[in-house]
Design a protein that fits this description.
The protein is mainly α and about 300 residues long. It has helices at about 1-5, 45-95, 105-140, 145-155, 160-180, 180-190, 195-200, 205-215, 215-250, 250-285. Helix 3 packs across helix 4 (about 145-155) and helix 3 crosses helix 5. The relative contact order is 0.15.
């Protein structure tokens, strides 16, 4: 199938469909067309769709990530301040001015608390992403963009999203220990995992790898762009964060820098999720029949029901 789907929208099969030799019982509306809101035939189309969807959902998405940032910052900011203070107190021992290793205990304790806070914040972010995915689907399917409705649908998938996020973090950690190339590969293959877990019941890590390998050219181009956008945004905000921490200094500088990092999370949440949803749609369309019609609420004559 992969050799056919890469030929372009003009190259259709005998049934005048983009995908070759699909079962005739599938209604025509369930085949993607060049005007499909999510599935695109090429890279420029993918980017245009993502930007358009981001423009439609940015207000509720910004509110969503602001709400999610409150508990996340409440956990990570005090933990960050405590860890910074313990690291500062540890410096004399490292320089040899204080004998013994007993000073390591408070530092290790603060490190553990900080890591726990980061993990909890990442799980909150995963749930927020699931809700944000529903906002994108609402916009793509022509529904009213409602944060309340999206939250109801996203929270129902929250246990699955959290569970698979933990599995993905474990796999990523193992890949990191193995070296540079495995971490890039695993990270790329799992990038759309939150989207597919939100939209597909019973799907997980293996499905994410299957979608990624359906058409490597499509997958790599989308994933690399999402990574570049994320890295560029992180670098820009990171530079400002370091500057603020250096200028203000002390505990106040640490707090301000952490709060500014929350601003980065808001911006990234609004921009990145539409890119991921459309990337998922393109990957799935290269593997099997798929269009935005599959995501319509209570669709009529849905071949999958």
């Amino acid at each position: 199938m992969g050799t056919h789907v890469n030929q372009g929208w003009a190259e259709r099969d005998g049934n005048e469909h983009y995908w070759p030799a699909q079962p005739p019982m599938i209604p025509p509306s369930f085949y993607a067309t060049p005007t499909d809101p999510l599935v695109s035939p090429d890279y420029p189309g993918w980017w245009r769709r993502s930007v358009a969807l981001a423009g439609r959902i940015w207000k509720p998405a910004l509110l969503l990530h602001t709400i999610a940032a409150v508990p996340s910052l409440a956990l990570t900011v005090p933990a960050d301040v405590a860890l910074t203070g313990e690291a500062r107190d540890l410096q004399p021992a490292i320089l040899g001015d204080q004998p013994g290793l007993s000073v390591l205990v408070p530092y290790l304790g603060a490190t553990f608390v900080f890591l726990v806070a980061v993990v909890i914040a990442s799980l909150i972010a995963a749930v927020a992403t699931a809700i944000n995915v529903q906002l994108v689907v609402q916009a793509a399917t022509g529904q009213p963009v409602s944060l309340r409705t999206a939250a109801g649908a996203g929270l129902r998938r929250a246990p699955a999203v959290i569970g698979w996020a933990l599995v993905a973090n474990l796999l990523t950690s193992v890949a990191l220990l193995m070296c540079v190339l495995p971490i890039f590969y695993v990270g790329a293959a799992l990038m759309v995992l939150p989207v597919l877990v939100t939209l597909e019941r019973g799907s997980g890590v293996s499905r994410s790898f299957t979608l990624f390998h359906a058409d490597l050219g499509t997958s790599v181009s989308r994933v690399a762009t999402v990574f570049a956008v994320t890295a560029a945004t992180m670098f820009t905000f990171g530079m400002v964060e370091v500057f603020l921490e250096a200028v203000i200094g002390g505990v106040a500088g640490t707090v301000v820098a952490a709060l500014f990092n929350g601003v980065y999370l808001l911006v990234a949440g609004v921009l990145v999720t539409p890119l991921l949803v459309t990337a998922y749609a393109d990957m799935r369309a290269r593997l099997e029949p798929f269009s935005t019609a599959y995501l319509m609420p209570h669709p009529i004559n849905n071949p999958t029901t």
